Amino acid sequence: MRFLEEGFAPSFFWELSLQEVYEVLASQAKKQRETMKGEVLMKYIQSLQIAECIAKTKDIKNEMSLKNIWDYYPSLFEEEKILYQKEQEEQEFQEYKQKRIAYARMHNARFGGVYE
Hints:
Layout: H1 2-5, H2 10-15, H3 18-57, H4 69-72, H5 78-111
């Protein structure tokens, strides 16, 4: 009866030996267990993320930073992490450039030079 509950056709049952039936059921149970473990892991990570977000709202000094998805699943999001890091570096460089331009303008205004 369990064989049919697992979604297998009755004709498939009659094609197998008793040992093969046990192996198919064991394999199916293993797959279900792995699926359940994956779902539990995802829910656990989601609960950690929620807890982090709540803690971040209580962070008055703004010392806490939220984790990114690649911190939880590094092998799945390697490309996204690299792209994000490149974008961050470019943004930091642009901010640095703007600060240097502002400093040069201030310096030139103070000492009578011209900035082009």
